[in-house]
Amino acid sequence: CLTARYPHLGPDGDDVDAVWTDGPLAVSAGRKDLQAVHDALLRVQPAPWHEQTTELLGSLRAPRRGALGDASAGATLADALPMLLGGGPPLRADETGRLLPLDHQPVTRRFLGGLAVACVVEAEGRHAPLLHSQLTAWAASAQSAFDIALRNLHARADQALRQTHAEGFTLLQLDGHLDASLMLLDAVWDSQLARQTPAGALVAVPKPGLLAFSDIAAPGALAALRAFVAREAADEACALSTDLFYRREGKWERLPARRAP
To answer: Residue 222 is inside which H or E element, if any?
Structure first.
């Protein structure tokens, strides 16, 4: 955990009061003057705690690595977006394989069918995860982060959502990166696309940047979507899910992938 408790000591070494003296440093993560904040803390802290404060500075500067890539030092909660991940929520480990503390883990939650949702921000042409340490610094909860991420995705969909018709299904497109995350927008499926899928929506998300759908009762829809998934998910490095998903009465259900003969 990045946050450590430092007691202020009295002139005789007595523990006069216990406070969180590293707070200004932790909430400054991502600032260009992080070193100056650190130096200012050393000037007011008792000498025995200087080493711990310097270690904390190193932790805040260290890159966060994992399946989602590096965290962004310049991230803000207001820019959060939801991204679907395959294989459930990712867990980060150090070089020895030991799991990192929660503060070093990305902010994720389970979705369904082996999928998870991560809170990310766009940074330098990539999507960087938000970490629990960042939420702590912003005094924000994971729920508030997901609420903001969904609102941002709604706003983006209102401006850029489009459809491209293919043989046997339709591509629902956004930006080529978060298209699969459109599964998370209930209003899109329960109102905007309801007329196109009167019997229920059948959806494929073989990659994070791909979402194809059809009415489940449309002739050939199941076969067409399964063939689409087989083509697109062949590249396992960027595959999301080989399953199909069916929306019924406002909820998603997973259809297992077709078994090989």
So the answer is: helix 221-232
- HEC per residue, 56-85: HHHHHHCCCCCCCCCCCCCCCHHHCEEEEE
How many other CB atoms are found less than 10 A from the CB of residue 101?
12
Q: Please give the C-alpha separations between residue 86 and each of 44, 109, 166, 180, 208, in angstroms, as whole numbers.
A: 47, 12, 25, 11, 9
SS3 assignment, position 118: strand
* Sequence-ordered list of residues with C-beta below 8 angstroms from that of 68, at least 6 positions apart, any chain: 83, 85, 90, 106, 118, 120, 127, 128, 129
- Residue range 61-70, pLDDT digits in tens: 543 323 455 6
Strand 115-123 and strand 81-86: the pairing is antiparallel
- Residue numbers in the chain where pLDDT is lower than 70: 1-35, 37-38, 41-42, 44-46, 48-50, 52-73, 88-91, 94, 96-97, 99, 125, 236-238, 256-261
Angle at Cα 190 formed by Cα 199 and Cα 175, nearest 5°? 110
Q: Among all chains, which residue has been given the structure tokens 């690595």? A: 65
Query: Each residue of 64-82: b (16+ CB within 10 Å) or e?
Result: bebebbebbbebebebbbb
User: What's phi and psi for 203, nearest 5 deg?
Assistant: -130, 145
13, exposed or middle or buried, with CB in 10 Å at 0-12, 13-18, 19+?
exposed
Closest-CA residue to 4 (of 32, 39, 41) = 41
Q: What letter does residue 206 receive in the DSSP assignment?
A: S
Distance CA 32, CA 251 (A): 45
The DSSP code for 260 is P
pTM: 0.70
